[in-house]
Design goal:
Elements: E1 14-18, H1 22-33, E2 37-42, H2 47-54, E3 59-62, E4 75-78, H3 83-96, E5 99-102, E6 115-119, E7 122-126, H4 133-146, H5 151-160, H6 162-168, H7 172-184, H8 186-192, H9 196-208, E8 218-223, H10 234-242, E9 245-248, H11 254-257, E10 265-268, H12 280-292, E11 296-301, H13 311-320, E12 324-328, H14 333-340, E13 353-358, H15 362-367, H16 370-373, E14 378-383, H17 389-398, E15 406-411, E16 419-424, H18 428-434, E17 441-445, H19 452-455, E18 460-461, H20 469-478
Parallel strand pairs: 1-2, 1-4, 2-3, 4-5, 8-11, 8-12, 9-10, 9-11, 13-14, 16-18
Antiparallel strand pairs: 6-7, 14-17, 15-16, 15-17
This protein binds S-adenosyl-L-homocysteine.
Domain Siroheme synthase central: 120-145
Active site: 249, 271
Binding site for S-adenosyl-L-methionine: 226, 302-304, 307, 332-333, 384, 413
Length: 479
C-alpha cells in the first residue's frame, strides 16, 4: 500500500488553502462541506472565492505567501500556479509536520485527496495513489451508478438507531444478521418506495419483537429493454446485481444477462413460439416458491413489463399472495425501434398520437377498432405482428388507410443484427416475405415512418426493393 487511507473529521478545525483561482475554489467548496474552518491566502481572489469570502464563509489573508500562515492549521492545500511556490509550501509543511496536498502533484504532497462519492453518511473514496487521477474519477462514475439511492437514508436510520440496535443485539452474530435483514429486507424496500416513515416504523417494530426478524423474499419486476444492454436503467442494473434468482423471458439478450450477479440462479421461462414454453401459472408458482424461500427474485422481461408483458397479471398474483414487490420500467420495443431507426413517433406536422397495438392472435384482431387504427396522422406501433402482416394490411386498407402510407419494420431492434425494412403499406406483406423478416420485429406505420429511409442510423437498412403494385391492388380488392 503506497498510501494510508483515512477519513478526517475537520469540523471547526482550521485549514489553509493557498491560491485564489478556480482550483482553490473547488478545494474550498469541498472543505466547507466537511465543516472545516477555512482560511484562503492569496494576493488576489478570483470571482468565486471573492464571493465566498464576502459572505464570510472563509477568512481571507491577502498578500504573498508566508510560512507563518501554517501556524495552527491541521491541513494545507497548495493550489497556486507556481510550482516553486507550491514546493516551498510543501517544504514548510514538512518541517512543521503539517499534512500538505499540492493539487495534481503527488510528488510534492504528503496527502492526496481521493475521488469521492458522497451519499452521506456513506462516503466512498477512490485513489490511484497518484498514478492516474482521471481514471480514478472514471471509476467513481461507474461505482456511483451502482449505489442504491436508498442506501443514504438507510444509513441515516441505522446511525440514529445504532445504540438501540447494539443494546437489542448484544452478540455480534445476531447483530450482523439484523443488519443483513435491515439491508435486504422490508426497511430498505420501503425506503426505495419512498415511504421513510413506514420504514422507520418497521425498524422500531423489529427492535421491539422478541425473535430476530426473518428475511421475507421479494420480487422485482424489471424491464430489460429491447436488447442493447446500454438501454437498461441504473435501477435495473442494481436489481440484477442484487438478485438471488432471475426468471427471464427467452427474448432477453445474453449481453443483458451477463450483467447479472455471477452466482445468481438464472431460469429461462421462455414463451417464444417454437422454443420452450412455460405456462403463466408455472411462472407464478416459481415466483412464489423462490420469494417464500426468502430470496431476492428478479422477474426480467423484455422491453417494459407493463407493455404487452403480462406484468399486470404477475403483480396481481404477488399481491394476492402477500409477496412484496417493486416494478422497474424498461424501454419498450416501440420506443427503442423508433429511436434506432430514426423515426420520431410523433411529429408536429404528421402525427399527433401514437398507439401501441398488439396483433398477436385472432382474438386481438377481432377486438381491435380498425376504423380508428386506419385514421390518418397517427402512428401505429404494432407488436408481435410478423405472422399477421397480411391480415393487418388487409384490414387497414379496407378501413381506408392509404396504400402509400409509409412503414418501417424493424427486426431485432437495438441489437447488432438489427434490420430495418421501409416501404409503403400496400407492399408491406410482400416486402416482409421477400426479406424474410422474423420475430422479434416491430412495425411502425404512419406518416412519420417515411423518415427512416433518410434518418436511419443503426444496423442494416434493407434496400428499397422493386415495387409490387399488383400486391397492393390485390390486397385492396380482397378486403
Ligand atoms: N414488453 C415488451 C413487449 C413484449 S411482446 C416491450 O415492452 O417491448 C414481444 C414483441 O415485442 C415482439 O413480438 C416484437 O413485436 C416486440 N419486440 C420486443 N423486442 C424487440 C426488438 N428487439 N426488436 C423489435 N421488436 C421487438
Amino acid at each position: 500500500m503506497q498510501l494510508y487511507p483515512l477519513f478526517a473529521d475537520l469540523t471547526d478545525r482550521p485549514v489553509l488553502v493557498v491560491g485564489g483561482g478556480d482550483v482553490a475554489a473547488r478545494k474550498v467548496a469541498m472543505l466547507l462541506r466537511a465543516g472545516a474552518k477555512v482560511t484562503v491566502g492569496a494576493p488576489m481572489l478570483g470571482p468565486e472565492l471573492r464571493e465566498i469570502a464576502r459572505r464570510g464563509r472563509v477568512a481571507y489573508r491577502a498578500g504573498a505567501y508566508q510560512s507563518s500562515w501554517l501556524d495552527g492549521v491541521w491541513l494545507v492545500i497548495a493550489a497556486t500556479r507556481s510550482r516553486p511556490l507550491n514546493a516551498r509550501i510543501a517544504a514548510d509543511g514538512h518541517v512543521r509536520q503539517r499534512l500538505v496536498n499540492v493539487v495534481d502533484d503527488p510528488a510534492l504532497s504528503s496527502f492526496q485527496v481521493p475521488a469521492v462519492i458522497d451519499r452521506s453518511p456513506l462516503l466512498v473514496a477512490i485513489s490511484s495513489s497518484g498514478a492516474a487521477p482521471v481514471l480514478a474519477r472514471r471509476l467513481r462514475e461507474r461505482i456511483e451508478s451502482l449505489i442504491d439511492p436508498a442506501l443514504a437514508p438507510l444509513l441515516q436510520l441505522a446511525q440514529r438507531y445504532r445504540a438501540r440496535i447494539r443494546a437489542r443485539y448484544a452478540d455480534l452474530g445476531s447483530r450482523r444478521r439484523f443488519y443483513d435483514w435491515l439491508h435486504d429486507g422490508p426497511v430498505t424496500a420501503l425506503l426505495r418506495a419512498s415511504h421513510p416513515l413506514r420504514a422507520e416504523k418497521q425498524l422500531i417494530a423489529a427492535l421491539s419483537e422478541n425473535s430476530e426478524p426473518t428475511s421475507q423474499g421479494s420480487v422485482v419486476l424489471v424491464g430489460a429493454g429491447p436488447g442493447d444492454p446500454g438501454l437498461l436503467t441504473l435501477r435495473a442494473l442494481r436489481a440484477l446485481n442484487e438478485a438471488d434468482v432471475i426468471l427471464h423471458d427467452e427474448l432477453i439478450s445474453p449481453q443483458v444477462l451477463d450483467l447479472a450477479r455471477r452466482d445468481a440462479v438464472q431460469i429461462a421461462v421462455g414463451k417464444r413460439g417454437g422454443g420452450i414454453h412455460t405456462a403463466q401459472d408455472t411462472i407464478h408458482l416459481l415466483l412464489l416458491e423462490h420469494a417464500q424461500a426468502g430470496r431476492c427474485v428478479v422477474r426480467l422481461k423484455g422491453g417494459d413489463p407493463f407493455v404487452f408483458g403480462r406484468g399486470g397479471e404477475e403483480l396481481e398474483y404477488l399481491r394476492a399472495h402477500g409477496i412484496a414487490y417493486e416494478v422497474v420500467p424498461g424501454i419498450t420495443a416501440a420506443l427503442a425501434c423508433a429511436a434506432y431507426s430514426g423515426v420520431p413517433l410523433t411529429h408536429r406536422d404528421h402525427a399527433q398520437s401514437v398507439r401501441l397495438v398488439t396483433a398477436h392472435c385472432q382474438h386481438s384482431f377481432n377486438t381491435l377498432d380498425w376504423a380508428e387504427l386506419a385514421r390518418e396522422r397517427q402512428t401505429l406501433a404494432v407488436y408481435m405482428g410478423v405472422s399477421k402482416l397480411d391480415e393487418l394490411t388487409r384490414q387497414l386498407l379496407a378501413h381506408g388507410r392509404a396504400a402509400d402510407t409509409p412503414f418501417a419494420l424493424i427486426e431485432n431492434g437495438s441489437l447488432p443484427s438489427q434490420r430495418t425494412l421501409t416501404g409503403t403499406l400496400g407492399d408491406l406483406p410482400a416486402l416482409a416475405a421477400q426479406h424474410a423478416i422474423r420475430a422479434p420485429a416491430l412495425l411502425i406505420l404512419g406518416e412519420v415512418a417515411a423518415s427512416a429511409a433518410a434518418s436511419h442510423w443503426y444496423g442494416e437498412l434493407l434496400d428499397l426493393p422493386t415495387r409490387h403494385p399488383v400486391t397492393a391492388n390485390a390486397l385492396a380488392d380482397a378486403a
